[in-house]
């Protein structure tokens, strides 16, 4: 189903189908690029199953690990040993076993504060990209994974926060989160997340249905503002699918 703003919604049966569909789309994006690939991962619980799939056959053998680079769209400002650290979760689920260390790009949560960590990550992204400004004809990422929180946040872009309006900085520090875990965050900004061939939201479970209904109804929420310069795909399982999208 294609919304009139070019976002596409793909409905699947359940969480297993959701993770499989996400893995297939990610692999297709990787296969489309015979050069160096950049994937921006996300945190939270939604992508965990996808990460585990990527680390196992038949998916693992289809990833050219040597030329795929893994970034993170937002991070909780906690040590890398803390179970709330997003990149730690991705490492445990698949990266540590599969990806060369030099291809894993975590945020520096050991920096003095989230602003310093944001500056460092911005410098790392610019150096990887090879330029200080984004060229719409040459997206930074092949794919950007996203989730949606109960308040409509995505990455660590919370409703009403100044980070949402940022157009210059690539990465910003967020002193206070709006939802659990209530720790400072570091997040990529909307224009940088948009610089991708495909933005892929994974939304599963009945708990997500209320917020997804609001986002798809066009309410001004961060997850609704997050749109790729390329394709934006919302992968949604049956339990999360809003009432008015059922049976379409
Ligand atoms: C984070 C995330 C965040 C997440 C949503 C959904 O660090 O918390 O990156 O944006 O994607 O909060 O989280 P769940 O998948 O846990 O519902």
In short:
The protein has seven helices and nine strands. With 248 residues, the protein is α/β, with parallel strands linked by helices.
Could you list some keywords that capture this structure?
single chain, 248 residues, alpha/beta, three-stranded antiparallel beta sheet, 7 helices, 28% helix, binds 6-phosphogluconic acid
Report on this structure:
Helix content is 28%, strand content 19%. The chain is globular, with a radius of gyration of 17 Å. The protein contains 7 helices and 9 strands; from the N terminus they run βαβαββααβββαβααβ. It has a 6-stranded parallel beta sheet with strand order 1-9-8-5-2-3. It has a 3-stranded antiparallel beta sheet with strand order 4-7-6. Helix 1 (15-31) crosses helix 2. The longest helix is centred in the N-terminal third of the chain and has 17 residues, at 15-31. Helix 2 (48-54) links the parallel strand 2 and strand 3. With 248 residues, it is α/β, with parallel strands linked by helices. The protein has helices at residues 15-31, 48-54, 86-98, 114-129, 190-194, 209-216, 222-225, and strands at 7-12, 37-41, 68-72, 74-76, 141-146, 171-174, 185-188, 196-203, 231-237. The structure holds 6-phosphogluconic acid (6PG). 6-phosphogluconic acid (6PG) binds at residues 42-46, 74, 76, 86, 147-149, 153-155.
Q: Strands, helices and their partners?
A:
Layout: E1 7-12, H1 15-31, E2 37-41, H2 48-54, E3 68-72, E4 74-76, H3 86-98, H4 114-129, E5 141-146, E6 171-174, E7 185-188, H5 190-194, E8 196-203, H6 209-216, H7 222-225, E9 231-237
Parallel strand pairs: 1-9, 2-3, 2-5, 5-8, 8-9
Antiparallel strand pairs: 4-7, 6-7
The chain binds 6-phosphogluconic acid.
The site of 6-phosphogluconic acid has 14 residues, from strand 4.
